[in-house]
Design brief:
The complex is a heterodimer of chains A (about 270) and B (about 325). Chain A is mainly alpha-helical and about 270 residues long. Helices cover about 75% and strands about 0% of the residues of chain A. Chain A has a two-stranded antiparallel ribbon with strand order 1-2. In chain A, a hairpin with a 2-residue loop joins strand 1 and strand 2. In chain A, helix 3 crosses helix 14 and helix 11 packs across helix 15. Chain A is globular. Chain B is an all-alpha fold and about 325 residues long. Helices cover about 70% and strands about 0% of the residues of chain B. Chain B contains 15 helices and no strands. In chain B, helix 3 crosses helix 14, helix 5 packs across helix 11 and helix 9 crosses helix 11. The chains are: A mainly alpha (about 270), B mainly alpha (about 325).
Chain lengths: ~270, ~325
């Protein structure tokens, strides 16, 4: 009994911790300005009737729609590039490169260790040289530097967890190396690939430092750098619009990520 | 199954077949499949990394980005002497350490809860992962409004609890000004960082927690071990490798993030809540001194490298044990 109470106290605490700032955001979205900026009233109630004007403003008077679109395009391309590069690389390291491939986990991790905060200044120059500054393609090219090492490292664990007897059986059946990879191993690691795709998407969506440095043209910005610059003008904060932007991104993604939760956990199962 | 596979391989003839067979040798195929990723990493991680080192030893600016003047370690010396840098270094370490401490405790707690089945678990998972669904800059904005200097609901609750306001325990003011002072500002950054990193850290720890066989706990309980004894004797030692992985991931994401501080406190008042990546951005991109910016970003790298190698070796070793 005591254990049960303790258990639900823990659940309750974590729920509140995760949701309270966002509930405050949700209340704010539908508040009228005069209500939001009044000091004497209870801030959690609608002292004036709620309104949709801020949501309408967000979608019609700001570039938010463009940011959503840009972020989605960047995210999808980054996931694709990451998969194309890291799935074969992980297979190769797990099965083909022999003994040093088996010890490569740490080396990959060290690549991941060179963080965007260290690379953004030279990367800015490279992007300028390539002539893709101020376009979303700069992010499509550069963001896989974060996701490729990470996903290769995760997938390496997955490929290793597939028993070698499966490969050997396939080879005995006359499959070549590549066919074995494609027909036998790949289906075994699909859950890992799915988890990696979600991780890669979320890392690409979350990145701020590259998005803010490479792109200064508002229409080409993504959510992470676009929303703060578009809706914070000097000292004027469009609070309800900012909160609406946040929730429009957070709620659908949280539902999707939540459904994938067990896969994401599985993604780290074979990690070390 | 085997017939289907054979039809897929379908022996092509002649030259094509020989090329195919040559490509399918383990050594050749290994490089074909590894090559693109390696080339990409060399071009977009290795090269910029070297460029960062070159920049940090030059006098490049945004107006004149050429690397023609070599100035040795002058940039490092100049940067290290400024107060802003010292504060930024101190704060980066405080924020990272504070966040890691909180995240580890909460992630261990959360993984202990999430390993069990309970009603509404799906819903809980969605709520729990909400912070992770946000880009960091939006997280910063949510917390900025939550901790606003005038309209923070936290302040309002504290006043109602008679902790703030005239006659309150914490003094006559009605507001905490969470983001407007050095230590509360840093604490706010730590809480916000904890909030956004907890889901990822929990996912990592939970992966390890789920692979501890349940019998070990039952056996310990039969032997009369209490909750804390089980935690320190069984759970934590078994979690150790993945806790280290969680520390590395969380730590790197926290120490490299500038948007939280940029939006929450703008590094102020003064430079009292400045952190390294934001200071590098201000110097290198906004201030135009690419060389000094690069020097600031490079400063931490040797330490991160040593810490990470040691941590990873410990993780792999305790994995083998």
């Amino acid at each position: 009994m005591l254990r049960k109470i303790g258990f639900y106290c823990g659940i309750g605490f974590l729920t509140l911790f995760s949701i309270v700032p966002l509930l405050w955001a949700l209340i704010t979205v539908f508040k009228r300005n005069s209500d939001m900026y009044s000091v004497g009233t209870v801030p959690f109630f609608y002292n004036e009737p709620p309104t949709l004007e801020h949501v309408v403003f967000l979608f019609t008077e700001s570039n938010f729609g463009l940011f959503l679109q840009n972020s989605a395009i960047v995210g999808i391309f980054v996931v694709l590039i990451t998969m194309v590069l890291s799935i074969p690389a992980a297979f190769s390291l797990a099965r083909l490169t022999g003994s040093w491939g088996e010890r490569s986990g740490m080396a990959i991790f060290l690549v991941y260790l060179i963080p965007p905060s260290l690379l953004f200044i030279p990367m800015y120059q490279i992007v300028v040289w390539l002539g893709i500054a101020n376009t979303i393609w700069s992010l499509v090219i550069v963001l896989p530097t974060i996701t490729v090492p990470f996903c290769t490292w995760l997938l390496l664990g997955f490929f290793r967890s597939v028993p070698r007897s499966l490969d050997e059986a396939a080879m005995l059946d006359g499959c070549g190396q590549f066919t074995t990879f494609y027909r036998v191993l790949l289906p075994q690691v699909w859950p890992g690939v799915g988890a990696c795709a979600v991780f890669a998407f979320s890392l690409s969506l979350g990145n701020y430092i590259y998005a803010a440095t490479f792109i200064t043209r508002s229409a080409a910005r993504t959510l992470s750098a676009g929303v703060p610059t578009e809706l914070i003008r000097g000292d004027v904060f469009f609070w309800p619009e900012l909160m609406a932007a946040t929730l429009v991104v957070a709620i659908p993604l949280a539902i999707v990520y939540g459904l994938f939760f067990n896969y994401l956990v599985g993604g780290f199962k074979n990690a070390t | 199954m085997s017939t289907q596979q054979r039809s897929g391989v379908g022996p092509p003839r002649g030259r094509l077949r020989r090329i195919g067979a040559w490509l399918d040798q383990p050594k050749v195929l290994a490089w074909l499949m590894l090559g693109p990723a390696v080339l990409y990493v060399i071009a977009f991680v290795g090269f910029p990394f070297l460029l960062a080192i070159a920049l940090s030893m030059s006098d490049a600016t945004i107006g004149d980005p050429s690397l023609d003047t070599f100035v040795g370690l002058d940039n490092f010396k100049a940067v290290i002497q400024t107060d802003a840098f010292k504060l930024a270094l101190r704060n980066s370490l405080i924020v990272t350490a504070g966040t890691l401490g909180l995240v580890l405790v909460l992630a261990t707690l959360a993984s202990e809860l999430l390993v069990h089945a309970f009603r509404g678990k799906r819903l809980f998972q969605m709520i729990f992962i909400l912070p992770w669904a946000l880009p960091v800059s939006l997280t910063a904005i949510v917390w900025m409004w939550f901790l606003d200097s005038t309209f923070s609901p936290v302040d309002w609750v504290l006043v109602k609890l008679n902790l703030l306001g005239p006659g309150g325990v914490w003094g006559p003011f009605k507001h905490m000004y969470f983001l407007g002072n050095e230590w509360l500002g840093l604490a706010s950054v730590i809480v916000t960082d904890t909030w956004r990193m907890l889901p990822l850290a929990t996912i990592i720890v939970l992966a390890a927690r789920m692979s501890i066989p349940e019998e070990r706990f039952e056996q310990a309980r039969v032997d009369g071990a209490g909750v804390f004894r089980i935690l320190f004797r069984i759970t934590l030692p078994a979690l150790k490798p993945m806790l280290i992985v969680a520390i590395l991931f969380t730590g790197l994401l926290v120490i490299g993030e500038m948007s939280l501080v940029q939006l929450l406190t703008r590094g102020g008042p003064g430079h009292s809540t400045q952190v390294l990546p934001y200071w590098a951005y201000l110097k290198g991109i906004q201030g135009g001194s690419l060389a000094q910016g690069a020097a600031i970003t490079l400063f931490l790298f040797p330490f991160l490298l040593v810490a990470s190698v040691l941590a990873l070796r410990a993780a792999y070793r305790s994995q083998e044990a």
